[in-house]
Amino acid sequence: MARIIAGIGSSHVPAIGAAIDNGKTEEPYWKRVFSGFEKSQAWMREAKPDVAIVVYNDHASAFSVEMIPTFALGCAAQFPPADEGWGPRPVPVVEGHPALASHIAQSVILDEFDLTICNKMEVDHGMTVPMNLLFGKIDKNSHWPCPVIPLAVNVVMYPPPTGHRCYMLGKAIRKAVESYPDDLKVVIFGTGGLSHQISGPRAGLINSKWDKSFLDNLSKAPRKLAKIPHVDYMREAGAEGIEMVMWLIMRGALDDKVDEVYRFYTVPASNTAVGHIILENRKRGGKAARKGKPATAKHKRAAARAKPTQVRGR
Ligand code: DHB
Ligand code: FE
């Protein structure tokens, strides 16, 4: 059976991608951001997922105002990087997992979530920036370390899905993954945010208090977050802060009680607060895991390496 071993939350700021692509990661401004992901990359190397599901939003790269699916699942074998205006990012083509993706589409749609099936789709920074943050910089002619299933969510044009809908979709995705017969280790990413507003009179808005409380509740009380209406995101986290509902898809796909093994928060990167969290499912298998202990010695070592939890505020 396939199983979701962990959820990863990460901002997807495009300027982070530009810093990687233009060799600026050692500059003090960017080093502050990238140093927060070093332990996460070690965690990822140890976790070695067979597949990643990346929940992200397209920024008018694959879709335009002409066509706006609420939830679009990438079922293709390959997803080329999109041309975001300055040309496609120099990252490898993302290899998909059509068999698992089609299985998820079937299970989730029969569970009454109306996904759009995408058999051809380009992917932008919303997806490739968090992948770089967790997998590291990867040469354009090389390969990402595992197949990836993109799930694009509309958070660009009103009305985006509610946080509750996202949380419940996460649960349906988990059920789908667990009914897939192959023994696959799956990680799920929720991307976007944290608080930010890019235009209008409140451009530059960042609300660290809101962000930190969101991360606390994501870890310990996600059902509270699932009740937050759109207007609260807009008011407290800025117009683009609504991207944070995507983290609830990731959280819905995890156990009710999870182990928070890593957290990072820094302000600013470009116009946003950068947030990052790694939450591990306890039911990774075995008795120890069911008692709430790390499932294996290997898992314990990875969790210990990722600690101490590091939180940087303004
Ligand atoms: C910025 C952040 C985003 O998440 C995004 O998708 C686009 C722009 C920014 O900081 O400018
Ligand atoms: Fe964004």
Quick recap:
The protein has 314 residues and is of the alpha/beta class. It is 36% helix and 19% strand. It is built from twelve helices and ten strands.
Write out key terms for the chains shown.
10 strands; 314 residues; alpha/beta; binds 3,4-dihydroxybenzoic acid; binds fe (iii) ion; single chain; two-stranded antiparallel ribbon
Can you walk me through this structure?
This protein is an alpha/beta fold and about 325 residues long. The protein has twelve helices and ten strands. It has helices spanning about 15-20, 30-35, 40-45, 100-110, 125-135, 165-180, 210-220, 220-225, 230-235, 245-250, 285-290, 295-305, and strands spanning about 5-10, 50-55, 70-75, 80, 95, 115-120, 150-155, 185-190, 260-270, 270-280. The strands form two sheets. Strands 6-3-7-2-8-1-10-9 form an eight-stranded mixed sheet, with helices on both faces. Strand 9 and strand 10 form a beta hairpin. Helix 6 runs parallel beside helix 10 (about 245-250). The longest helix has 16 residues, at about 165-180. It is globular, with a radius of gyration of 18 Å. It starts with a strand and ends in an 8-residue tail after the last helix. The relative contact order is 0.21. The model is unreliable at about 285-295 and about 310-314 (pLDDT under 50). Fe (iii) ion binds near residues 12, 57, 59, 126 and 243.
